User: Fold this.
Amino acid sequence: MIEIYLIRHGLAGQFGDFADDSLRPLSEIGVKKTTKIAQRLKELGLQFDVILTSPYARSMETAIILQSIGLSETLETLDDLKPAGDIEFLIEQLQNIRERIQSVAIVGHEPDLSRLAAQLTFGQNCENLVLKKAGVVGLSAPVDGDLTGQCQLFWLTPPRLLLD
Amino acid sequence: MIEIYLIRHGLAGQFGDFADDSLRPLSEIGVKKTTKIAQRLKELGLQFDVILTSPYARSMETAIILQSIGLSETLETLDDLKPAGDIEFLIEQLQNIRERIQSVAIVGHEPDLSRLAAQLTFGQNCENLVLKKAGVVGLSAPVDGDLTGQCQLFWLTPPRLLLD
Assistant:
């Protein structure tokens, strides 16, 4: 089994304050909370072989915080982690990389990440998984075969559960 | 919305050491960890209007620990929370009591609790939710209508996330 962690970007600046939504950064409190959560994940012993992130600023910053805390040496952007990316393509990507990894973190947006979690766990769309900003989902996935509906959901936390 | 917390009993004595499985109690370490988790739930501000529990010893003890920490004044046993109880009946019970509560904890066994969570969240059976001993699931539920497939899963934690 490999582990897949889906991590929503932290609290960002106000929508509308930035002409280009892709450039909207984390807010000051978003940086602080995301850093605390990254530290807690490190304390819990997590280590990712790679962090895949949406190229949008608020996700990139979140991913860089995770990396800077020492959760992974490697960080890659993936266009389909932008809002409304292709979930089937993301699942294929996960299937392709799992031979060479044991643990991956995926940083992105809602409702995409909770839809991805539902596809991996239940094999269908579902709007009933709630992933708050800086929330984390943990899935364990088989090392071969289609991942759709074959992953086990063992962790879903709102940020307050990982903050003091 | 009301909140429904599903809490699996803590670590119990060895299966086979007790002629009647319903009398198998928590182990010493099970009591300690369950108490720590109950304290953490209290710190997080949780409060239940009622704790419903399987009458089996390991669940009753878990429920009593939750009650003794101050998470609820009221504790009731429910026969259908025994292993292999009737999930449809449990959902009906939840529908019946929700008018007079805001938050309920349900203490019981696996795989029943994760199946109940899957029914409430996805409206179907699913074996891909992992609820370890002393694990917690948090759901928010509408105040009227059928609960099946209508609840939102916002919390699923293995015990280590709630221990120091």
About this structure: Helices of chain A lie at 28-43, 57-68, 87-97, 112-122. Residues 28-43 of chain A form the longest helix (16 residues). Chain A has a mean pLDDT of 95.
